[in-house]
Structure formats: C-alpha cells, structure tokens
C-alpha cells in the first residue's frame, strides 16, 4: 500500500489526466490551494517600472499571498513599504507553466472597493524578447473600484497598440467562475459558464498572430493605477481577493487537439503509414497498409504536450532533430514530448521539443524532426487504421495498465462508474484519497465495470482515484461536486 500511496500522491501533485466534462476538455494543470501555494507560481515583488506600467500605487510582496481555508488569499493593505503607501501581491507561472489554447478558469471572490483592481490574466511567453504588447495579453477577468461589471479583453500589436474587449454584469463580491475558451479560431469569455464576449483570431486576423503561441497565467490585486484611478478608499483596507482554484484544460479530440488515450495511425502526405518498427531502427513512413507496427497510443506528457507510444510499448523520440526518429525510449522526457498542431483539411503536424516539425520525407528515409515550417511532408492524417476512433467512447481512456475510465466526472450525488479492461485484469482494488493523502474509500471491483456509491459525508473537492491490479496502478483525478 505504500507504493500505491506514493503513486496517488504523485498523481495528486501533477493533476493530469482528468476529463473536465463529457465534452472535450481534459484537465492538464491545476492549483486547488488546499494546503498551500503550488510550486508553479513565481512572485513578482517591488513597484515595477512606472508602477508596473500602469502607475499602480502598491508595493508587491510575497507575504501578502497566503492560503486560508483551502483558498488563495491576496490581500491589499494600507501600510508603508518600499516607499509606497500600500502593499499587495502578484504571482505568475512564467518559466514554470504556459499553454497554447485551452480552457483556463478560476473560481474567485473580489473585494470591490474604490481603488481596487483585481485581475486574472495571461501574457505571452515571448515577452522577454519582444516586449509588450507584441507578446499579446489575454485578460480573463478584470474589475475595478465598486463596479458590478467584469472585463474580458485582449491586447496586441497591429502596427501599433490595439485592444478589443467586452464586459458583463456580475455580483463580484460573491464567488464566480471566470474563464476563457481559447482555440485556433477564437477566444471566448465566460462567467459561470455563460458566454459574454468573443474575439476572432482565426489565421491571425488583424495581426492577432500573438494569440497562437504559449501564454502564462498571472493573478494580482493592484491598488490604484490607470484603470481604477488613484482615489483609494483607505477605510476598506485590508481587502482581499479569494481564489478557490485555478484550472487549465485542453481539448481531448474532435479535431481540435490531441486525442489523448486513443489508438491512432499516422499517415503521411504520400499516403504511406508511419511505422515504429522494432525501435532499433529509425522510423519510416513507407508502409502501405496498417499493421501492428503502425499503431501508436497518444498519452499525456505533461502540460500541453503529448507523447506517442508504439505497439512495442516504447515511446517515440525526436532525438535532436539531426538523426532519425526512434521508438525506443522507455520513459517520457523532453525529446519524447510533442505539440499536436491542427492544420487545415483535417490534418495534423507534430512539433518536437526543439520547436521543429516532424517530416515523413519521401518514405524512403527515416522520419526526422528538423523542419521549421509546415509543408506537405510535415502533415499527417490520423485515426484511419482499423479499429481507430475519432473520439473516446467515455471521457478519457488510457491504455495501461487497465484502461481506466471514470464517468461522469465531475461526480454528482456521490455516484459514478469505473470501467476497465476486464480481460487485462478481472479484479482490481479501488482506492480514493483526499488532498491530505488520507484514504477515504476502498473497494474490490470485478468484471470490468463497477458502480461506485461514495459515502455521503465526503466533501466537495478534488480526490485521486487509484485502480490497482497485477499490471500496476493507474490514477485519475476525481472531482466531487
């Protein structure tokens, strides 16, 4: 059980592999702020340049961000520090985590006092090289002063600074889920799942190419500045933004993202299939029919990355781009991670960790990951082999050790189903662990399908479900609503 507990804790820390709902969003990263602030946040401190470019009045300190009752609390205070009359906190995932496309959301409660400016927003990874606004900015939620409206805006450079935004009414001092859904065509803003604004970014229209790159997340509470003005209600301080969670999802299929958990076949633009061979020789795209060696499983490689696992159970590596790609790695590291890039006409391309694209060449030479742009030889079709699916049957499906599927997820009424390959393992052990690491439920399940009714006293929140057989242990993040 110690090994199982360790595996469950690792799963809890990574929070990867849970499907957000029965549609097409899979959770790839989250901070639930249950016992502290996660390791992927970096704090910005001081006054920045020109009040962080906005003439803000506070000095940002890490001490102003705490976790209380399972929530992140960012507190603005009326206190002198570093030559400023106010303090607060600003935190970001820059250099730790960033994403291209997805659903990004946070459940928050705002303070709404004169002079307040809370924000949940994103900046492009390339800000250090191109600066702002050329890096692009996505404001998922901003609110100022005592306004009962929240703002959703993008900022970018189109031969000069431009922005486009919308707003909607919200009782901001109550809890709400603020989110965007972002893909190659548009960015959409929601409050509690209700759409209120859309920005078209398809094909980089109006210079919006910035929004087809990776962005990192920022949370902060400013005092004063260009947007709210510098009239501050000191009597309202201290005041806090409370954040229940921040979650990032990415698409699990339907042609808009990597089909994590599915068996796929890659067919090059020459009509021939990629083969993993036996892992000892470079991969080729020279098979005219689909057999075992042309079969791959798509698995999560962390963040927004995916990995390809061949039918020999080994992972595809792009090496360094100078030699042929191999399917001979037993673990997923940098060279085994790919971006899944959707192209026109239902084709996809694979971009390696070196930023270069996989090319099928002419099928006579090994496949390599050394192209800087997408042309014919960098495009593949997928899901065309015998038995392949265009979408998972139920939520997320991974292939080993027991193809664990959990549905519905989130769980309502404390009841859900667990499905696995009973031919692989006719009997399994189920274990549910809360965020503190305590096992709160165990059961023995048989015959490949189990209807689970959890104790009604279990609180809402994130749990880890582990399923153990003689093949090993597989885990899923489970949300109880």
From TrEMBL:
Keywords: Signal. Pfam families: Glyco_hydro_16 (PF00722), Por_Secre_tail (PF18962). This is Family 16 glycosylhydrolase. NCBIfam families: Por_Secre_tail (TIGR04183). Residues 1-22 form the signal peptide. The lineage of its organism: Bacteria, Pseudomonadati, Bacteroidota, Cytophagia, Cytophagales. Residues 31-254 form the GH16 domain. It comes from Marinoscillum luteum. InterPro entries: Actin-crosslinking (IPR008999), Beta-glucanase-like (IPR000757), ConA-like_dom_sf (IPR013320), Glycosyl_Hydrlase_16 (IPR050546), Secre_tail (IPR026444). It comes from the Bacteria. PROSITE patterns: GH16_2. Belongs to the glycosyl hydrolase 16 family. Transmembrane segments: none annotated.
């Amino acid at each position: 059980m110690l090994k199982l507990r360790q595996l469950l804790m690792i799963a809890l820390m990574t929070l990867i592999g849970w499907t957000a709902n029965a549609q097409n969003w899979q959770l790839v990263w989250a901070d639930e702020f249950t016992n502290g602030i996660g390791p992927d946040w970096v704090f910005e401190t001081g006054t920045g340049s020109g009040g962080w470019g906005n003439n803000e009045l506070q000095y940002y300190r890490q001490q102003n961000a705490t976790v209380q009752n399972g929530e992140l609390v960012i507190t603005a205070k009326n206190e002198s520090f570093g030559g400023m009359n106010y303090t607060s906190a600003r935190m970001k995932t820059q250099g730790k985590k960033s994403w291209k496309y997805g659903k990004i959301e946070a459940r928050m409660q705002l303070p709404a006092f004169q002079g307040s400016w809370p924000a949940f927003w994103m900046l492009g990874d390339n800000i250090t090289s191109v600066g702002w606004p050329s890096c692009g900015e996505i404001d998922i939620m901003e609110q100022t002063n005592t306004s009962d409206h929240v703002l959703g805006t993008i900022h970018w450079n189109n031969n000069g600074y431009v922005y486009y935004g919308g707003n909607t009414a919200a009782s901001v001092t109550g809890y709400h889920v603020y989110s965007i859904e972002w893909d190659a065509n548009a960015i959409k803003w929601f409050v509690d799942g209700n759409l209120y604004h859309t920005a078209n970014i398809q094909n980089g229209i109006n210079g919006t190419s910035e929004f087809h790159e990776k962005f990192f997340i920022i949370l902060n509470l400013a005092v004063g500045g260009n947007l709210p003005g510098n009239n501050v209600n000191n009597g309202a301080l201290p005041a806090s933004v409370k954040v229940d969670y921040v979650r990032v999802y990415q698409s699990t299929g339907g042609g808009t993202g990597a089909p994590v958990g599915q068996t796929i076949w890659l067919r090059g633009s020459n009509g021939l299939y990629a083969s993993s061979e036996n892992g000892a020789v470079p991969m080729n795209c020279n098979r005219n029919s689909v057999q075992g060696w042309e079969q791959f499983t798509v698995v999560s490689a962390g963040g927004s990355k995916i990995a390809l696992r061949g039918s020999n159970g080994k992972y595809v590596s792009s090496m360094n781009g100078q030699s042929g790609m191999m399917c001979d790695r037993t673990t997923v590291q940098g060279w085994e991670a790919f971006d899944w890039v959707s192209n026109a006409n239902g084709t996809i391309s694979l971009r390696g960790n070196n930023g270069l694209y996989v090319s099928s060449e002419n099928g006579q030479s090994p496949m390599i990951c050394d192209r800087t742009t997408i042309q014919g030889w960098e495009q593949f079709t997928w899901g065309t082999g015998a038995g392949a699916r265009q979408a998972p049957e139920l939520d997320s499906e991974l292939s080993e050790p027991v193809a664990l599927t959990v549905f519905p997820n989130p769980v309502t009424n404390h009841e859900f189903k667990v499905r696995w390959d009973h031919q692989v393992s006719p009997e399994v052990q189920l274990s549910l662990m809360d965020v503190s690491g305590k096992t709160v439920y165990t059961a023995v399940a048989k015959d490949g399908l189990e209807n689970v009714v959890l104790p009604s006293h279990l609180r809402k929140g994130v749990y880890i479900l582990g399923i153990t057989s003689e093949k090993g242990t597989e885990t899923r993040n489970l949300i109880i609503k």
